[in-house]
Design brief:
The protein is mainly β. It has two domains: 47 residues, no CATH class; 44 residues, no CATH class. Helix content is 0%, strand content 41%. It is built from no helices and eight strands. It has a four-stranded antiparallel sheet, with no helix packed on it. 9% of the residues are buried. One of its GO terms (cellular component) is chromosome.
């Protein structure tokens, strides 16, 4: 099966692969390019976003930063919340 999806990093083609956790998309130019994307119904999904800092200190511990994150699993999957950068030492959370 020939796919028509290009690697966003190096423009080689992406290949659908399977591991013990399920399907994913990897670059054909591996190991030179280590781009990996999740599988969404037989097509490459979006890359996971890195947590974004709000620039404010944590009100609970006073040491960490408040960071905006997205829930990846469970019933609240995709919901955005703000948590402490020192997790798991500080368990401060606030839903947006």
């Amino acid at each position: 099966m020939l796919n028509e999806f290009d690697c966003p990093s190096c423009k080689h083609s992406l290949v659908r692969r399977k591991n013990r956790y399920g399907y994913f998309w990897g670059c054909r130019n591996y190991p030179d390019c280590q781009m990996i994307l999740p599988d969404e119904q037989g097509k490459p999904g979006k890359r996971r976003q890195k947590p974004q800092s709000t620039g404010e200190t944590c009100p609970e511990c006073g040491q960490g930063e408040r960071i905006e994150r997205t829930i990846r699993k469970g019933q609240r999957r995709g919901q955005t919340f703000i948590g402490c950068s020192r997790f798991p030492a500080c368990t401060y959370t606030e839903f947006v």
